[in-house]
Design a protein that fits this description.
alpha/beta; Spore Coat Polysaccharide Biosynthesis Protein SpsA, Chain A; seven-stranded mixed sheet; 9 helices; 28% helix; globular
C-alpha cells in the first residue's frame, strides 16, 4: 500500500496572472489541471489514498473533492514545512509517496519509482537537458547538481553546478519513503536544529533538496529511480505556453505524453 502526499500550498507567483485567483496546482494544461493530471496517474497505478497539503486558496482544492490538510503559514514557509503539516497521516503501515504540486508525469515513470527498493527513492531524469533546453536559454543557470555512485545512490543534489559534469541527472520532485522508515523520517526532521541555516535558508524555509542532502549525509540509503523524460515541471507562464504550443502541434510526446 502507498499513501500519496501532494505539496500544493503555494500560489506560484511566476504563473501570475493565472494564479491570481487559484493555487498553482490548479493551473490548467490542455484543459486539465496539474493536480487532476497527477492524481489520475496515481489512481491508474492503484494509489487511491491521496492527501493534498494546501495553503493559498485551498478552498478551491477542497471544493473539487480532494482531501486536504492546511499549511496555515504557507506564505512564510517552504516545502519541507508544508510536508510535515501532514505528519498526522504518515505511518509505517504503507510507503509514502511525496510529489510537488507543479509537476506531472507518465505512469511508467511513477512505476519506476515505486519499483525502486530503497529507504528513499527519488525520480531522476537522466535526459533532463532536453526539457531544460526547451524551457531556458541557459539550462546550466537553472539546473542543480546531482551526483550518483556507481550503484545508483544519490550522493549530492541541489547545489549550484559549475559545469554540466556536475549534473548526472535532474531531481524531478517525486520521492518515495519506504514504509519501515516513515517514522524515522519524521523523527529525523524533528531532530534537526531549528536555529541552523540550511543552504542559506532558515529551518522553516529549507529547500526539499537541502533536507534530502541532510538525510544523505546521515547515511540514509537514497537511490535514484532513473527515467528518460516523461514528466514536466510547470514553473512559469512561459513553461505553460511552451508546453501548450507543442501539444497543439502534436509535438509534446517526446517530452511527456499527456494521454489526451
Amino acid at each position: 500500500m502507498t499513501k500519496a502526499i501532494i505539496l500544493a500550498a503555494g500560489q506560484g507567483t511566476r504563473l501570475r496572472p493565472i494564479t491570481n485567483d487559484k493555487p498553482k496546482c490548479l493551473t490548467p494544461l490542455n484543459g486539465k489541471s496539474l493536480l487532476a493530471r497527477q492524481t489520475e496517474v496515481l489512481k491508474e497505478a492503484g494509489i487511491n489514498d491521496i492527501q493534498v497539503i494546501g495553503g493559498y486558496r485551498m478552498d478551491q482544492i477542497q471544493n473539487l473533492g480532494y482531501s486536504c490538510i492546511e499549511n496555515p503559514d504557507y506564505a512564510s514557509t517552504n516545502m519541507v514545512t508544508t510536508l510535515f503539516c501532514a505528519r498526522g497521516v504518515m505511518n509505517d503501515s504503507e510507503d509514502l509517496l511525496i510529489g510537488y504540486g507543479d509537476i506531472i508525469y507518465q505512469r511508467n515513470n511513477l512505476e519506476a519509482l515505486l519499483n525502486t527498493e530503497a529507504e528513499i527513492a527519488l525520480m531522476i531524469d537522466k535526459d533532463w537537458r532536453q526539457l531544460w533546453e526547451l524551457r531556458l536559454d541557459n539550462p546550466l543557470e537553472d539546473a542543480e547538481t546531482l551526483k550518483l555512485s556507481e550503484t545508483g545512490s544519490v550522493l549530492e543534489l541541489g547545489k549550484k553546478p559549475k559545469s554540466y559534469a556536475d549534473i548526472e541527472g535532474q531531481y524531478t520532485g517525486l520521492i518515495k519513503i519506504r514504509k519501515d522508515k516513515v517514522n524515522e523520517f519524521i523523527q529525523f526532521y524533528d531532530d534537526l536544529n531549528q536555529e541552523n541555516f540550511y543552504d542559506g535558508q532558515d529551518f522553516f524555509n529549507m529547500y526539499m533538496t537541502s533536507f534530502l542532502q541532510q538525510l544523505i549525509d546521515a547515511n540514509w540509503e537514497v537511490k535514484a529511480a532513473v527515467v528518460s523524460n516523461g514528466w514536466l515541471e510547470i514553473d512559469s507562464v512561459s513553461d505553460l505556453e511552451t508546453y501548450q504550443e507543442l501539444e497543439d502541434k502534436g509535438q509534446l510526446k517526446p517530452y511527456c505524453d499527456l494521454g489526451d
